[in-house]
Amino acid sequence: MRVQLIRTAVIALALLPLPAAAAVLPDDRADLMYHYYDGGGVTIDGPSLLVRKKFAEKYAASANYYVDMVSSASIDVITTASPYTETRTQYGVGFEYLRNKVTYAAAFSNSSENDYEADTATLSISQDMFGDLTTVSLFFTRGWDDVTRRGDATFADEIDRRIYGVDISQVATRNMVLGLSYETITEEGFLNNPYRQVRYVDPDAAVGFSFEPERYPRTRTGNALSLRARYFLPYRAAIQGEYRFYTDTWDILAHTAEVSYTHPLDDEWTFDVRYRFYTQDAAEFYSDLFPRSDFQNFLARDKELSTMTSHTLGFGVAYEFKSPRMSFLSRSSLNLRYDRMRFEYDDFRDISTTGFAPGTEPFYSFDADVIRFFFSGWF
Amino acid sequence: MRAVRIAGLLLVAAAACGCSRVEPWVKPYERENIADPIMAWDRDPVSSSYMRHVFEAREGARGALGASGGGCGCN
Amino acid sequence: MNTRSGFQVAALLAALAAFAWQASATDGSAPAPAFTLASRAGGEVSLADLKGQVVMINFWASWCGPCRKEFPALDQIYAKYKPMGFTLVAINVESEKEDAEKFLATTPASFPILFDPDNKVSGSYGVSAMPTTVLVDRQGRVRWLHRAYKPGDEAKYIEQIRAALREKA
User: Which of A168, A247, A364, C105 would suit a FRET pair with A229, their CA atoms being 20 to 30 Å apart?
Assistant: First the structure.
């Protein structure tokens, strides 16, 4: 039996970002990246290729190819199933059209793995106004997911997703830019994981608890609001602060805060450092251990819906150069970014430990390393 | 939340109705620092979109992480 | 709720799409504001010195992508029309010369480059876009102002230059 731990749906749209500035299309560029994640018994790595090109300064096209090669022996997998490997492949294309100060964009992506298929389409419009000091973007995303289950040909279900978002970017002073984003996400359908189980107190079981399948509501609406500011320091560096507030109909309330600092050196090196803090309250129907079987209408034991905190400390180095061998590239860069993450759960217990009565096991926590190594070329 | 949504839409509608008579307090020729590549919200989309995926797959919150604008304000 | 939200979004998209911004404007015949600026070639250049010629003034910066793209086209225009009583001055608006010099090392220009580091001249010409190109006739009046640059705009520049060259001083 396998556990499908990565919710691929929302991810599919994340890889084609909004147009960067409404008055000028971004430069032609290709990025080839190797990504690596290792934490909590899960290792995922793979390539990501992103290419964009503009035509006549009016049109732009972009394409993305991305693969996750998953090797999972996570806490959920080892306590309820057996370790597995899997590959998820994602393709995306995007188009932009710039006319006067308005950029129209459309993007489509498809993510595919053996038990999950996600299609996502996004339309957006972005405009500069008030003397180009303000950029307002609106976007609408629609997603269609097909959920199946390995080893069970009779199971098939869907998710229908709609996302509406507004982004406002404001040049505040000669040295500071402010940003505000608001997004509302509505999902309908099979929102849980066909493999995941919840546990309940069971005096008849040897370990004192038993498992049963999780049961989620078939709708979820979430709202997120974020504010950010980026400031140019006089000796040529940049500092940024960001805060996001999230709430949804499952009663999850989350705060995200991040500070980052960018420091260039000469014309070749750029260093980044960042710290991110995240905290959330558990979903209303979440429990690590229910008192009995079929305790309530909705049951969840997904640690992603628990009361948790995460800390991320990240570093990045970029080296920019002009490659004599690849003369068609006006400039190139080599980049290495490393993040260390720590996840701490306040109401999700580590049931892989032994010698504890059910409900007294230590709370789970784990560390993760995330590495991105990529080459960028501008042409 | 619906009130917030309507307020947001009204704000954008007001902004869209041709209000270009506001004199920009940062002139186009004063945007040297804002146009600096290090001031971009998102210098490497291939990396930031991947990190967004890493967080959204492991946390309950989603969204409102996109950013656009700033830049040189040319054309 | 979904259909209503859909309509709201569609209405907004339509409102934004209808918003148009004019890329260029033709002006009447106000006298061009005077200036005296340091030149890259040494010394100073005054607008008064150039009276009698058709003058094209281009406000640019090395951090402005369209400005950089415009340079080769400006170079060609300068070379072609200089013998006919035309001159082109490119006024750099950056507070320090360093980045402009770096750009000019890789993209040489044969026309005069002037420096306006405190932006007084940019302000007097009401520069509201980068780049901005102004055409001054033989009598020192502003005849045409063009904001922004897209490939192909140089045809409009040439049209205006030729019309101004046909006029008597």
Answer: A247
pLDDT band at residue B17 using 50, 70 and 90 as cut-offs: low
| pLDDT at B18 exceeding the cut of 70 | no
Which of A:189-228 have CB within 8 Å of B?
Answer: 222-226, 228
C-alpha to C-alpha distances, C145 to A278, A356, C25, C149, C160, nearest whole angstrom:
51, 80, 6, 12, 10
**pLDDT tens-place string over residues A220-251:** 999 999 999 999 999 999 999 999 999 999 99
- C104 at B interface, C-beta within 8 A: no
- The domain in which residue B44 lies consists of 24-60
At A317, which CATH number? 2.40.160.40
Q: Is the pLDDT of residue B3 over 70?
A: no
Q: Is residue A3 part of a domain?
A: no
Residues of the domain holding A253: 8-378
Of A56, A125, A129, the CB nearest to C151: A56
Long-range contacts, stretch A250-253, CB < 8 angstroms, 24+ apart: A250/A217, A250/A220, A250/A283, A250/A284, A250/A285, A250/A305, A250/B60, A251/A281, A251/A282, A251/A283, A251/A284, A252/A222, A252/A280, A252/A281, A252/A282, A252/A283, A252/A305, A252/B60, A252/B61, A253/A280, A253/A281
Please write the tens of the pLDDT for every residue from A69-100.
999 988 888 888 888 899 999 999 999 999 88
Question: Distance of alpha carbon B55 from its chain centroid, rounded?
Answer: 20
With CB atoms and an 8 Å threshold, state whether C150 touches A57. Answer: yes
DSSP conformation class of A262: E
Q: Is the pLDDT of residue A136 over 90?
A: yes
The answer to whether A200 and A210 are in contact (CB under 8 A) is yes
Chain C residues with beta carbon closer than 8 angstroms to that of B17: 15
Instruction: Match 């709370």 to its residue by tokens.
Output: A363
Q: Which of B13, B16, B32 sits opposite C61 (nearest CB)?
A: B32
Comparison of pLDDT for A324 and A321, the residue scoring more: A321
State pTM to two decimals. Answer: 0.88
Chain A within 8 Å of B39 (Cβ-Cβ)? yes
Residue C123 and residue C145 in contact, taking contact as beta carbons nearer than 8 Å? no
Element (H, E) at B55: helix B45-56
Question: Residue A300 in contact with residue A311, Cβ under 8 Å?
Answer: no
The string of pLDDT tens digits covering residues C83-133 is 999 999 999 999 999 999 999 998 989 999 999 999 999 999 999 999 999
Domains, chain C: 21-166 (3.40.30.10)
Q: Which of B16, B27, B28 sits opposite C19 (nearest CB)?
A: B16
Q: What is the ipTM of this complex?
A: 0.92
Inter-chain contact C150–A101, Cβ cutoff 8 Å?
no
The mean per-residue pLDDT over the stretch B23-29 comes to: 89
A27: chain C residues, CB-CB within 8 Å: 65
Pairing of strands A116-129, A102-113: antiparallel
Domain contains A40? yes
